[in-house]
Each structure stands twice: as structure tokens, then as C-alpha cells.
Design goal:
Strand order of the largest sheet: 10-9-8-11-18-17-12-13-16-14-15
Number of strands: 18
Oligomer: single chain
Mean pLDDT: 92
Number of domains: 3
Strand content: 15-25%
Shape: elongated
CATH class of the largest domain: Alpha Beta
Length: about 475
């Protein structure tokens, strides 16, 4: 039979004793997808910890996953299109576990001429030959021949956002909590983000803001302020100044932006006399976990430096490389982005890219492997790079994307977050302490993920000291 077509067998073409088979192997995503479609989230199927303590000692498939395979045979090949279900009886002999290969065999047992019904014996066996499901199915068989082009279904990818979030937090396992000042957390998401980080064992929070408003908000959204130090500040500007002073005096190891504007916080951070400047240019990195990209992706700078000069980009690149190494990327691959992959004197981004790469060759930037200018597609797709004849150890495998300016970086990061379901974390580098800096529209989950990065950075600083 031509695999490009789907074709049935009519009632008259089927004889008693005829059979058809289908073979499928159970994958984790099969269980997840079946649970999503059916709403059956029985922990025996979706909770490995619970399943381990159950009678089967491991996750098992929903019973009707196997039943659905029987339906697949009936509806697509034996008899095929035009078949109508009439009755079904199944007995489940043993569970199907991850990795089991199930062979479904349907055999014609009886035909009824007066109404064109057929009864099929149904048997599902596993790779060891043991019976998994036995039963019967009665259908109204098609009376006319049907042959159609086989429909191509859209590709389906499961994005387990919670698993990716848990994986990010798992990087901090075994690390002590750090002290963090949370600046003006006066909306629900910023306050919940700080408290989620507290409950995850990441931070000991100091909440800086108008205390009456904070307590009222906590009561309104039903959260507790236990284990939080509270410092009263009448407004957001004052809260930023107090929090920066705490960091400068080594009373906290990190800062987190709450519901104030970025420039309010950064104005206090970059103050030459009372701020948190170092010899490095302060810059921002979005750490993105993109479901369609095989490794973490760092994007810089999309939040602090508006139109950085070449000299400022040196620090921006070095900050990002240092962060990548802190999170376990031994030799980060850095793609310097531009609109094209060739140097064009009329496009400053391409000139800066070429200069940055040469500076890395001369040891002015260390710890990473740089290439540029690279267009975005060449930076993240080996196929695109090969199509354009680009030979590079970075192209298609970038760990860090260095954008030309804040507009392009901000749009890129938010497109990945909102259109590609990327999990994002935002952190400010180059200051005396790490600063969690997210958008005011970001969720509590995003803020907590960002806090995990701050914890890694704070512990790295402890080791250096």
C-alpha cells in the first residue's frame, strides 16, 4: 500500500481470519500528551515520585492509550476510512511502562451480512510477548472503497515549562541562601517573586518600601512575610537609595528590582559617590531557556546600555562571558550580532563586531570564543550558516548573543519569551553585587528564576573573596 495514501478495506474485501497489526513504543511525551488531552492527571501516570511508591514501582501509561491504538488500526487501515465504532470490550492484563513496545493485532472473528457489522478480536502484546490488552470491537464496516491522500499533521512539541524552571533552580542545590534587598515590591508579582525565592531556599529577603502598603498587599494576595526583614521607605526613589546603601555596606549580597522603573533603581546603582560601580561597565543579561534551542542562551545588553560604544561593548561581552562560566559553560561561544555577516563600513555594528573579535585574539577579552559579525540566523542555526558558506566554531552554536543596541536586544528577548515560550531570567552585571532586573510585566516565576542566577553569582563572589 502506498504510504502517501490512506485506503480502506470494504466489508466484502475482509474475510474471517484476516488481520492487521500496528507497533508503537511508549515515550514520556505520549503519557504527557494523553494526560493533557484527557485531563487524566492520575499520579500513577504523571508523578514519578508517587509512581515509585505504587504497586508497579514506575510510571505507567493510561489504560486507554492502548485502547486508542486499537482505534487507530480500525480507523486508518483495518477496515479504515468509513468505519464506525459500534461496541468495544477490553480487559487490561498488565501495565504498559515507559519504553515498552506494543504490538496491536486485530483479527476478523465474525461478519454479519444483514447489517455489515464485523467483530474483531483485539490483542495487544508487549516486547516480551506478554498480553497487555485483550478484548473485542464491533464496527460497521464501510461499503464503498475510499482512497485519500494521507493528511500531514502539524509537528507537535511539548514544552514543559515547569521542568525547565525546576532545572534552573536545581543549579543552586547545596548552596546557602543569600541575603537580598528587594526594592519596592509593591505589586503582587514582584512581592510573590521575592517570597517564592524565599520559599525555594534561595534568599533571605529584606523588603524595602512603604511598610503599610507592603503589609496590606501581602494580606490582599494571601502571602506571609515571615522570615523577611522589613525596612520602611516612603517611596520608590527612597527605597532604591536604601537598598543600594545596604549592598554598599555589605549588609546584603544582592538586589532585586520590585515594581519601580528600571531607571529609578539604576540611578542609585550608578551614582559615582554612593552607588555600586566597579571598574567594569554595568550591563544586563537575559538568560533564556528556549524550547527549540539545545542550550541556554544569554542575550546582552537588552535593558541597561542604550547604544553602547565599542569600549563599552568590551565590558558587556566580558560580563556575559564571566556569567556563562559561572553557570557551567566552560568556553562560551559568543556571537556578535549584526544585520549581515560581512564587515560593512557603513554599519557600525559590523565594525564593532570585527574589532571585538580581534580584541579577543589579543587577550583584551578572555574566557570565550568570539565571532562576528553574524546575522541572527547564522548565530543559532548551523544549517543557515552552512548555506551561507560560513565556517565558524560559533555559528549555529552560540551561547551568548551580543546585540548592537538596546532596541534590538529588548525585542529579541521579548519575542523569544512571548512567541517561543522561552523561560527568561534577567540579571545586572558589573556592579558590586548581582542585581535581579526584570520587566514590571514579568511573572513571579521569572523573578524567582532570575534570583537563582543571582545566587550563583553571589557564591562565585564569595569564592573569589
Amino acid at each position: 500500500m502506498d504510504p502517501a495514501y490512506i485506503e480502506n478495506l470494504t466489508y466484502d474485501e475482509i474475510k474471517v481470519g484476516d488481520s492487521a497489526t500496528l507497533v508503537r513504543t511508549l515515550r514520556p511525551e505520549d503519557i504527557q500528551l494523553f494526560a493533557i488531552m484527557s485531563g487524566d492527571v492520575n499520579p500513577a501516570h504523571v508523578d514519578p515520585e508517587y509512581a515509585h511508591s505504587s504497586m508497579f514501582r514506575e510510571v505507567i501509561a493510561h489504560g486507554m492509550w492502548g485502547g486508542a491504538l486499537i482505534s487507530t488500526v480500525l480507523g486508518t487501515q483495518f477496515p479504515g476510512p468509513g468505519t464506525l465504532y459500534v461496541d468495544q470490550s477490553l480487559h487490561f492484563s498488565r501495565p504498559v511502562t515507559l519504553g515498552d513496545t506494543i504490538t496491536v493485532t486485530l483479527t476478523c472473528r465474525k461478519k454479519f451480512e444483514h447489517n455489515h457489522h464485523i467483530i474483531f478480536d483485539c490483542l495487544c502484546t508487549n516486547q516480551d510477548g506478554f498480553k497487555v490488552i485483550v478484548g473485542s470491537a464491533e464496527v460497521l464496516a464501510p461499503g464503498e472503497k475510499i482512497r485519500r491522500v494521507r493528511m500531514t499533521l502539524p509537528e507537535f512539541k511539548l514544552s514543559d515549562r515547569q521542568a525547565r524552571y525546576d532545572h534552573l533552580l536545581a543549579r543552586t542545590q547545596g548552596l546557602d541562601r543569600i541575603s537580598m534587598a528587594v526594592v519596592h515590591p509593591c505589586d503582587s508579582e514582584s512581592l510573590k517573586g521575592a517570597l517564592m525565592a524565599r520559599d525555594a531556599g534561595l534568599i533571605v529577603p529584606t523588603l524595602v518600601g512603604p511598610l503599610g502598603r507592603l503589609r496590606e498587599l501581602a494580606e490582599q494576595i494571601g502571602v506571609s512575610l515571615h522570615d523577611c526583614a522589613l525596612i520602611d521607605a516612603p517611596h520608590s526613589h527612597a527605597a532604591a537609595e536604601v537598598a543600594v546603601k545596604l549592598a554598599r555596606n555589605l549588609e546584603v549580597e544582592a538586589l532585586m528590582k520590585g515594581s519601580l522603573h528600571t531607571d529609578e533603581l539604576m540611578e542609585a546603582v550608578i551614582d559615582k559617590d554612593t552607588g555600586l560601580r566597579t571598574h567594569r561597565r554595568i550591563s544586563h543579561v537575559f538568560l533564556m531557556d528556549v524550547p527549540t534551542y539545545p542550550r541556554p542562551l544569554l542575550i546582552t545588553d537588552a535593558a541597561v546600555n542604550v547604544e553602547p560604544t565599542l569600549e563599552e561593548k568590551v565590558d558587556i561581552v566580558q560580563n556575559a562571558i564571566d556569567l556563562a562560566r559561572m553557570i557551567g559553560i566552560t568556553e562560551p561561544k559568543v556571537a556578535i550580532l549584526a544585520a549581515v555577516e560581512t564587515v560593512n563600513p557603513k554599519m557600525r555594528a559590523t565594525l564593532d563586531a570585527a574589532a571585538l573579535c580581534k580584541m579577543a585574539d589579543r587577550g583584551q577579552i578572555t574566557g570565550g570564543l568570539l565571532d562576528g559579525p553574524l546575522a541572527f540566523d547564522n548565530a543559532v542555526s548551523i544549517v543557515a550558516a552552512k548555506t551561507k558558506g560560513i565556517r565558524s566554531a560559533v555559528a549555529g552554536q552560540a551561547d551568548i548573543l551580543v546585540v548592537p543596541d538596546i532596541e534590538s536586544g529588548n525585542m529579541l528577548a521579548k519575542q523569544l519569551e512571548y512567541l517561543a515560550d522561552a523561560l527568561s531570567a534577567g540579571i545586572v552585571l558589573g556592579a558590586r553585587v548581582p542585581i535581579v532586573l526584570t520587566s514590571r510585566a514579568d511573572s513571579a516565576e521569572t523573578r524567582t528564576a532570575s534570583t537563582a542566577i543571582a545566587v550563583l553569582m553571589a557564591h562565585a563572589q564569595r569564592k573569589r573573596k
